[in-house]
C-alpha cells in the first residue's frame, strides 16, 4: 500500500521500495491463483458444456460425443479438472483448445499481437488527447474553451463503443469510402505497414473514445488543483507566461494522478476490447474470448484469464512504482 | 527542445504518418481486378475436414479439397471427383467413376487409392473425427462411422479410377450421397505413414494443405481470413480470378463491406446473408446484385412433451394459437414462408395438403377442455444472436397470451439453451434447423434418446415413420412415408414449426455466373464465377 509521506532519508527509500515490491509480489501470487480458481468454477458451472457447441450439427452421434467427452477430460469432477489444469499450467502447459485443438499458448500469443498493437496505439492516442483537452479546459476555467472541452469529454465518456463504431464505419467506410471497416489488411495488394495503419484508424478511435473522455476529466481536475499550488503562483510572480508555467511546472505533477487511472485501465485495453474487436473483425484476444465463452472452450478461457490477471496485477504494481518515481513525496510501506 | 521546434517535429512526424498510411495503398477489392472476397460471419474451427461440425469450415474445405459429389438445393447431386456413379441392383453398392484428369496441388495424380485411404483414415476411431457419422451407412463401420476392425470400411478400389462403396444394407443411394457430399478427399501421399498423434495435430492439416480443389491454400490470419491462389490446373476449369480471400465479418457489417467494396460476395444462408433490416438499403445499392432465395431453414417452437400439462391436444392448441402469417408478412416482410412441418415447400417430398393451422378460439377451447393450468407461468427459452428469431418469439408469446397463457421469455446464449432444454428446464424453446434436402433431416430432433431431442419426445412413432421412408429404395416408394410423416408430426406436435427464412444474398455487380442458390447446400462452385 502506498501512502503519501515526506521522505526523510533518500537512502532508505530504495530499500523500502524493494521490500515493497517483494511484498506486493508475494500478495499477488495467491491473488492470481484465486482468480484462476474463481474463473474456472464460474466457467464450469455456467449452463452448457463444450459438447453442446458441437450439437450445432444434430447428426453427430452420441458415441462420437462420448469419445470427445473423455478426450477433453469432461467426464471428471470439476475439482479434478481444475487441479489437472493447474498441474499442467505449473509445468508450463496451457493445454489445447477444445474447438481448434491448437495449443492455447500459441493461440493466445498469436492473438496478443493485434490486441497489443490496438491497445498501445489507443493508450498513446488517449493520453495525448486527454492531456491536450484537460490542459485546454483547466487553463481557461469557466470559459467557452473549458465548457467545450468538458462537454466533449462528457459526450465521449457516455458514448457506447458499438454505437461509435457503427457511426464511424457509416461515415468513413460506407459514405466517404476513405477507411476500411474490418480486418488487419485489405484483401487485395501486398500487406504493408501503411495498409495496417489505415485499418487501425477506426478501431483505435473507437477504443480510445471513452478513455479520452474519462481521462480528460481527470486531467482537467488535476491541472486545476495543481494550478492553485504555491510554486505555480511563484512561477507566475516571476513573470513566467501561463503556457510555460503549465508545461514546465504544472504538467508533470498533474500527470501523477492520471497515471494511476491509466495503469488501472491497461487490462481493460487488452482483455476488454471485446466490442471493438468484434465490430472491426480485429483478430485479437477480445474476439477470441467471445468465441471461447460461447463455445465453453475452458482451456482458452483459462489461458486468457491467466494473461489478463497477470497483466492486471503487474500493471497495478508498475503504476504504484512509477507513482513513486514521479512524486518524490511518495514512500513505500 | 523549445516549444516551436517541438511543434515542427511533431507536425512533421504526423504528416509522415499520414503519408505512410495513404501511400500504403487503398486497394479495394473492386479495384484489384482479380481478387474476390467472400464474407462469412464466423470463423472456421479446424483444417482437418472430418473433425468439424461447422459449415463455416466446410466453405474453406470446399475450396481446397474435392468430394465425390456435391448436393444442390433441388435435391440433386452434381459430379465432383466422380464423373458418374451407378447403384447396384438391390442398392447394396454404389460404384463411383473418378475423373481421370484430377491432380493434387503438388502435381501428383489423384486416384482411387486416395479415396480409399481417406475413408480408411476417417473411419479410424483414434482419429479425431467429429463428423465420422457421415460414414455410418458404409459396410464395415459401426453406427458412429468407426471401422469395426482396421481397414474394414467397405470402400475399395476396383481400378485406379473406380471406387466401390458397399453399404451395410440396401438403402436409397441419395441418403448416402447426402453424407458423402461433405466427405472431402485428402492425399494419401502426404498423410500415409504419419502417426495418429501427428494426424491429430492441427499443424499436420493447416501448415500447407494439399488438396485438389479450385484454389490452393496461401495464407491465413486466425479469426480474420484465409487466402487462396487459383489452381490453374483445376480439373473442372481454372478459376477466372487469381486470389480468393474468405474473411470473417460480423453480420451487422456485411452490407457496409459490400457497399464500400471491401467484400464482393456473401457466403450465403446461415453463413452470411444481408440482415433483413438492411435488405431495402441493399436492394437500392448501385454496385450490388441482390437475390432473395427461399430456403429450407426453418424455426420451430420446441414444446417440452414431458410436462404433464402439455398433452397432445394441448400441444395442438399451442400450434393453432400461433399466427404464422403475421410473422411472415409483418416481421419477415414476406421474405420467408409459414410452415407447420419440417419438410418445407422446397422439398420434393412436401405435402401441400397438410394445412397450416390457425384458430385461436379453437385453441383456447381445447386448453379449457384439457384443464390446462392457465395460472402457471411458462418458461420460454429464446437464444440470443438472431434478432428476427427474438422478435418472432415475442410475437409467439403474444399469441399464446391472447389465449390466456402466462409466458415468460428468458433470453439465453445458444449453449445454455441446448443444455437447459436437454435437462427439461423449459416449457418452450425456439430453435432453427433445416438446410438439407433430406426429408428425414428432422429425425434426430424427434427421436427418443437422441442428444438433440429437445422436445424430450418418448414416442418412437415419428422416428419409425422416417426409418420406414429411409428403408424404401426409390423416390416413389419413399414419398408416401414422408407424406405420412408430415401429417403425423403436425398432429403429434412435439414442436410447432413456424416459418422458413429466405437467404438474402448480395454480391458485387462485377461478378457473374454466381448462382448462389446452391450455397445453401454448401456447394460454392467458385471456379465458375466470372469477374469483370
**DSSP, total strands of chain A:** 2
Overall average pLDDT of chain B: 91
What percentage of the residues of chain B does DSSP assign to strands (E)?
15-25%
The total domain count of chain B is: 3
User: What's the CATH superfamily of the largest domain in chain B, by name?
Assistant: Dipeptide-binding Protein, Domain 3
Taking the alpha carbons of the first and last residues of chain A, their distance comes to: 6 Å
Write a short abstract of this structure:
By secondary structure, chain A is an all-alpha fold. Chain A has 13 helices and 2 strands; from the N terminus they run βαααααααααααααβ. Chain B has 18 helices and 21 strands.
What are the SSEs and their pairings?
The complex is a heterodimer of chains A (333) and B (532).
Chain A: E1 2-4, H1 10-45, H2 50-54, H3 62-72, H4 78-90, H5 104-139, H6 144-157, H7 161-175, H8 193-226, H9 230-237, H10 242-271, H11 274-279, H12 285-294, H13 298-326, E2 330-332
Antiparallel strand pairs in A: 1-2
Chain B: H1 3-23, H2 29-32, E1 35-40, H3 55-64, E2 69-71, E3 77-79, E4 82-87, E5 93-98, H4 112-122, E6 155-159, E7 162-166, H5 173-180, H6 188-191, H7 196-199, H8 202-206, E8 215-221, E9 225-230, E10 243-248, H9 254-260, E11 265-266, H10 279-283, E12 288-293, E13 298-303, H11 312-321, H12 324-331, E14 336-338, H13 360-369, E15 377-383, H14 387-402, E16 406-412, H15 414-422, E17 428-433, H16 443-446, H17 461-471, H18 475-492, E18 495-501, E19 503-508, E20 511-512, E21 530-531
Parallel strand pairs in B: 1-10, 1-11, 15-16, 15-17
Antiparallel strand pairs in B: 2-3, 4-5, 5-7, 6-7, 8-9, 9-10, 12-19, 13-17, 13-18, 14-18, 20-21
Helix pairs in contact in B: 11-13, 17-18
Amino acid at each position: 500500500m502506498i501512502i503519501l509521506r515526506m521522505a526523510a532519508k533518500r537512502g532508505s527509500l530504495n530499500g523500502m521500495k524493494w521490500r515493497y515490491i517483494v511484498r506486493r509480489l508475494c500478495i499477488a501470487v495467491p491473488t492470481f491463483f484465486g482468480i484462476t480458481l474463481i474463473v474456472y468454477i464460474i466457467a464450469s458451472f455456467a449452463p452448457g458444456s463444450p459438447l453442446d457447441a458441437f450439437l450445432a450439427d444434430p447428426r453427430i452421434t452420441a458415441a462420437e460425443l462420448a469419445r470427445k467427452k473423455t478426450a477433453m477430460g469432461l467426464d471428471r469432477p470439476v475439482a479434478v479438472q481444475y487441479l489437472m489444469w493447474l498441474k499442467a499450467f505449473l509445468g508450463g502447459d496451457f493445454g489445447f483448445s477444445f474447438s481448434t485443438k491448437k495449443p492455447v499458448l500459441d493461440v493466445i500469443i498469436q492473438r496478443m499481437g493485434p490486441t497489443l498493437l490496438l491497445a498501445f496505439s489507443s493508450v498513446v492516442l488517449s493520453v495525448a488527447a486527454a492531456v491536450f483537452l484537460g490542459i485546454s479546459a483547466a487553463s481557461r476555467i469557466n470559459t467557452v474553451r473549458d465548457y467545450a472541452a468538458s462537454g466533449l469529454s462528457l459526450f465521449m465518456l457516455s458514448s457506447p463503443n458499438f454505437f461509435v463504431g457503427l457511426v464511424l464505419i457509416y461515415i468513413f467506410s460506407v459514405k466517404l469510402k476513405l477507411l476500411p471497416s474490418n480486418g488487419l489488411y485489405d484483401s487485395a495488394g501486398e500487406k504493408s505497414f501503411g495498409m495496417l495503419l489505415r485499418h487501425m484508424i477506426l478501431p483505435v478511435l473507437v477504443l480510445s473514445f471513452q478513455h479520452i473522455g474519462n481521462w480528460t476529466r481527470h486531467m482537467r481536475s488535476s491541472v486545476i488543483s495543481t494550478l492553485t499550488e504555491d510554486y505555480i503562483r511563484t512561477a507566475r510572480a516571476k513573470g513566467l507566461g501561463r503556457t510555460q508555467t503549465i508545461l514546465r511546472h504544472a504538467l508533470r505533477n498533474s500527470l501523477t494522478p492520471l497515471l494511476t487511472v491509466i495503469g488501472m485501465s491497461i487490462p481493460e485495453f487488452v482483455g476488454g476490447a471485446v466490442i471493438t474487436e468484434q465490430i472491426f473483425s480485429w483478430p485479437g484476444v477480445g474476439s477470441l474470448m467471445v468465441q471461447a465463452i460461447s463455445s465453453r472452450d475452458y482451456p482458452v478461457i483459462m489461458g486468457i484469464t491467466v494473461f489478463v490477471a497477470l497483466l492486471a496485477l503487474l500493471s497495478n504494481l508498475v503504476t504504484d512504482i512509477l507513482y513513486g518515481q514521479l512524486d518524490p513525496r511518495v514512500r513505500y510501506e | 527542445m523549445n516549444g516551436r521546434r517541438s511543434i515542427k517535429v511533431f507536425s512533421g512526424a504526423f504528416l509522415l504518418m499520414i503519408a505512410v498510411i495513404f501511400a500504403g495503398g487503398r486497394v479495394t477489392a473492386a479495384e484489384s481486378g482479380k481478387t474476390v472476397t467472400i464474407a462469412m460471419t464466423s470463423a472456421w474451427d479446424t483444417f482437418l475436414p472430418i473433425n468439424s461440425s461447422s459449415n463455416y469450415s466446410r466453405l474453406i474445405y470446399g475450396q481446397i479439397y474435392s468430394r465425390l459429389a456435391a448436393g444442390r438445393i433441388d435435391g440433386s447431386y452434381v459430379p465432383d471427383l466422380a464423373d458418374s456413379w451407378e447403384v447396384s441392383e438391390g442398392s447394396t453398392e454404389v460404384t463411383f467413376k473418378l475423373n481421370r484428369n484430377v491432380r493434387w496441388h503438388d502435381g501428383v495424380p489423384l486416384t482411387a487409392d486416395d479415396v480409399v485411404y481417406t475413408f480408411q483414415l476417417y473411419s479410424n476411431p483414434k482419429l479425431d473425427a467429429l463428423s465420422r457419422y457421415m460414414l455410418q451407412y458404409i459396410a464395415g463401420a459401426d453406427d458412429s462411422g468407426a471401422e469395426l476392425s482396421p481397414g474394414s470400411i467397405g470402400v475399395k478400389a476396383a481400378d485406379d479410377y473406380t471406387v466401390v462403396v458397399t453399404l451395410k444394407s440396401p438403402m436409397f443411394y441419395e441418403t448416402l450421397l447426402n453424407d458423402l457430399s461433405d466427405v472431402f478427399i485428402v492425399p494419401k501421399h502426404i498423410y500415409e505413414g504419419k502417426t495418429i498423434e501427428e494426424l491429430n495435430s492441427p499443424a499436420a492439416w493447416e501448415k500447407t494443405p494439399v488438396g485438389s480443389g479450385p484454389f490452393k491454400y496461401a495464407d491465413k490470419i486466425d479469426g480474420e481470413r484465409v487466402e487462396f491462389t487459383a489452381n490453374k490446373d483445376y480439373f473442372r476449369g481454372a478459376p477466372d480470378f487469381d486470389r480468393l480471400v474468405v474473411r470473417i465479418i460480423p453480420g451487422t457489417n456485411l452490407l457496409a463491406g459490400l457497399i464500400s467494396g471491401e467484400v464482393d460476395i456473401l457466403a450465403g444462408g446461415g453463413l452470411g446473408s444481408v440482415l433483413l433490416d438492411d435488405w431495402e438499403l441493399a436492394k437500392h445499392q448501385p454496385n450490388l446484385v441482390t437475390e432473395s432465395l427461399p430456403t429450407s431453414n426453418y424455426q420451430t417452437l420446441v414444446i417440452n412433451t414431458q410436462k404433464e400439462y402439455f398433452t397432445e391436444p394441448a400441444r395442438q392448441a399451442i400450434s393453432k394459437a400461433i399466427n404464422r402469417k403475421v410473422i411472415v408478412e409483418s416481421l419477415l416482410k414476406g421474405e420467408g414462408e409459414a410452415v407447420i412441418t419440417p419438410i418445407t415447400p422446397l422439398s420434393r417430398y412436401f405435402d401441400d395438403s397438410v394445412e397450416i393451422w390457425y384458430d385461436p378460439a379453437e385453441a383456447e377451447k381445447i386448453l379449457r377442455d384439457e384443464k390446462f393450468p392457465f395460472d402457471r407461468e411458462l418458461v420460454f427459452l429464446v437464444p440470443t444472436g438472431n434478432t428476427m428469431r427474438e422478435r418472432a418469439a415475442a410475437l409467439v408469446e403474444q399469441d399464446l397470451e391472447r389465449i390466456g397463457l402466462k409466458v415468460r421469455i428468458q433470453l439465453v446464449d445458444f449453449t445454455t439453451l441446448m443444455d437447459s432444454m436437454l435437462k427439461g428446464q423449459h416449457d418452450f424453446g425456439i430453435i432453427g434447423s433445416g438446410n438439407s434436402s433430406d426429408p428425414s433431416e428432422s429425425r434426430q430432433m424427434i427421436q427418443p434418446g437422441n442428444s438433440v431431442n429437445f422436445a424430450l419426445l418418448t414416442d418412437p412413432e415419428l422416428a419409425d415413420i422416417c426409418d420406414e421412408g429411409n428403408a424404401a429404395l426409390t423416390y416413389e416408394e419413399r414419398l408416401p412415408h414422408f407424406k405420412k410423416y408430415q401429417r403425423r408430426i403436425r398432429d403429434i406436435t412435439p414442436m410447432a414449426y413456424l416459418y422458413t427464412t429466405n437467404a438474402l444474398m448480395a454480391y458485387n455487380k462485377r461478378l457473374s455466373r454466381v448462382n448462389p442458390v446452391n450455397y445453401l447446400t454448401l456447394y460454392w462452385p467458385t471456379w465458375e464465377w466470372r469477374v469483370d
